[in-house]
Write the structure tokens for this entry.
Amino acid sequence: MNRWLLWTARYSLAIALCVMFVAPVAFLLLTSLMTDSQALTASYWPHQWRFANYADVFSKTPLPRYLLNTVIYAVAATGFMLLSSVPAAYALAKLRWRGQNAYLVVIVCMMMIPPQVTTVPLYLMWANVGLTGTLVPLVLPMLLGDAFSIFLLRQFLLTIPGEYLDAARVDGCGEWRTLLRVVLPMARPGIAAAALFQFFYAWNDYYGPLLYTSENEHNWTLSLGLASFKTLHHVQWNLVSAATILTMVPVVVLFFFAQRAFVQGVTLTGVKG
């Protein structure tokens, strides 16, 4: 008994934090198994376990289509981000050129600009070329790089010893070959961390799809699909909770398998600045 009390006292803060994080998910899961009349009442335990709520989600909304759009958005945006941000981070971390520090300052400043500031001019630009209502305005800008990802990858690449790059150059490798053959294999944890950050952002993004795809339901993502359960006079919170659980499952599984690379990448990006 004394040993149990000592263990509880020693890890009380960790237990409290665990409860804080687990309780909302447990509440969401229990609500997803309630009837519509019981959801969000004073009773937190389902009187009737209604697993049919998950089937109702698929019958009342085209959830597979929303899921496909979300996967397209998240995967394409992540791929385009890596394609453009990795070379930019390499140039900032391992090359020496005029204006390098000024360019880094610009990137940091871009991280501080709220996206709402550029909403109107960007929307008008995409509207003028007839691409609103599609996923293109959400994906294509990633080919120009992402400020946060460039900064994160740059911090990780600084931890790679320059001797490896010098040895590759002595062997006749150019900068692109050095990047592909030497830097990329050593930077896998940092690349994985940046990719997961971008993937999770795109998966959970609501503002971007609402702005560009709200006029065309065929291109809605899961975030907009969840909002479709809300009507003017009534919200079916049990179905909203069930759809939210279904939305969470893929990213939870992804993080479970990639957590080692993610944690390692995030940890090492702060080693050297």
